[in-house]
Amino acid sequence: MTIPSFEDYVATLGRLTAHVDPTASSPNAVEIKTAAASLAALPAITLDILRGWIEEHPAAVYILGLAVGLSHEKLKNVLKHHFNTSGWYTLAKTRPEDLLMMMELEYDLIRLLNVQRLRSYDFGDILAARAGTRATATRAGQSGRKVEDEIELIAKDLGLLCAPRTRFIGRAGRDAPCDLAIPSASSAQIVVAAKGFDSTGSKLTDAVREIVEMAEVRRPRQFVMAVIDGIGWKSRAADLRRIYDLWASGQIDGMYTLATLDAFRADLESAARLRGLI
Length: 278
Description:
CATH topology of the largest domain: Trna Endonuclease, Chain: A, domain 1
Number of helices: 13
Strand content: 5-15%
Helix content: 40-55%
CATH architecture of the largest domain: 3-Layer(aba) Sandwich
Shape: elongated
Oligomer: single chain
């Protein structure tokens, strides 16, 4: 696989977390209630009317995010993904039409505002909203396994033996973590890291450390690959570039996203044939 530029690689990152249509609670209750009352007082919900509203209340754009089920962090990552900036205040001032159109096309903004803004809520709705928030967190955790599941399916489809989520033995008996060892942890010929995150946090730092450790431990004849995806990486570009630099300098053999899994499959098959695994 020809190594693309870092910017071209970043362009292939996509969102992993399935969108949920919830009603979420949040701190800053006074701010939220004031903004919600302002939205409820609008004569109608249209893109033109909402443009006027966000131009008047640019700091309150995150309320629109809450209305479609996006937390502060998720909204920042979505904006970074679409506009290469996480600043909703600036976008509300400079690109209000683009901001609203994205939210309408991606998250059904107008319908959800119309459904929610004049509705009366009871105790059952409050409990359901709390359960929905928990369900969203559960789905986010499940999405982190999406990349792992995809690479395992490809390996098995190629007829390869593999051990998921393990530690492989490398140079001088040292070991390192990996998400897939082929054919096994103790006799690994190919090891793969799978790191998918739509949110940011310490897990991304841990992911970088693990891949660096894989590169340090590998034996000369071991192949090291990394499949990385999720829009959370766009907010941690320096961490992502550390992994990219390992690839560019030949310390790992490949770096892919879900959008380039065809290249991953081809490279995995080629490596497996070189080692007599197929």
